[in-house]
Amino acid sequence: MKNILIIEDNTITSKGMSDALYREFNQNINVYIAKKIEEAYTISLLNRIDVFIIDIILDTHTVSDVSGLKLAEQIRKNEIYAFTPIIFITVLTDPELYTYRDLHAFAYLEKPFSMQDAIRIIRKALKAPSIIDDKRQFYFRKDGILYAVKTDEIVYIQVRNHVMTIYMTEEILEVPYITIKKFLK
Question: Is 136:170 a contact under the CB 8 Å cutoff?
Answer without folding.
Answer: no
